[in-house]
Design goal:
The protein is mainly alpha-helical. The chain contains three helices and no strands.
Amino acid sequence: MIATTKPLSEITQQAIDILIREIGIGNTVRFLNQFTGGFGNYTEERELMFGELTMEEILDAIRQDHAEETTS
């Protein structure tokens, strides 16, 4: 059996999608920020993480994360 290797960009996108679904946008950003030192292309990264979301969806997710943090 020959294993095929996915491109790193595809693996990264899948991981980000899973993190957003499981822990929310705000916590995903906080998690990913611990691995970055202020380099790269912020515009590309932002598009990967939030490209298909509206501003209202992002704000709702942040509000929900905040509400969950204050109740736990």
